[in-house]
């Protein structure tokens, strides 16, 4: 990662995230169409009330997952550095 150019590396991580967000947004739009058409305004109201909670749970899950992933990476790096010093 340290020897690669930043542009292709950035695109490598950005493009899958962008595609995932587009798929998620498309899912929400299609879900709203079906719920609005077959259940009606009560169903749409329920989705609008529940969706912020889903967003909060997603944000907390990502926060915990990314934080734990960072700590694991740092600890693995420390262990590898200690192993290298012993040789």
Automatic annotation (TrEMBL):
Topology relative to the membrane: Multi-pass membrane protein
Compartment annotation: Cell membrane
Pfam families according to UniProt: MatE
Keyword Cell membrane included in the entry's annotation: yes
GO cellular component, one term: plasma membrane
Bilayer-spanning residue ranges: 9-30, 50-74
InterPro entries (UniProt xref): MATE_fam, MATE_MepA_subfamily
UniProt entry keywords in alphabetical sequence: Cell membrane, Membrane, Transmembrane, Transmembrane helix
Keyword set includes Membrane: yes
Any GO molecular function: antiporter activity
PANTHER family: MULTIDRUG EXPORT PROTEIN MEPA, SPORULATION PROTEIN YKVU
Name of the featured protein: Multidrug efflux pump VmrA
Species of origin: Budvicia aquatica
């Amino acid at each position: 990662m340290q020897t690669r150019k930043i542009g292709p590396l950035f695109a490598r991580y950005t493009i899958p995230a962008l595609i995932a967000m587009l798929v998620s947004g498309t899912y929400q739009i299609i879900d709203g169409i079906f719920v609005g058409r077959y259940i009606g305004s009560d169903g749409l109201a329920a989705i609008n009330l529940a969706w912020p909670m889903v967003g909060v749970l997603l944000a907390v899950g990502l926060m915990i997952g990314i934080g734990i992933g960072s700590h694991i990476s740092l600890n693995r790096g420390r262990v590898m550095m200690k192993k290298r010093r012993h040789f």
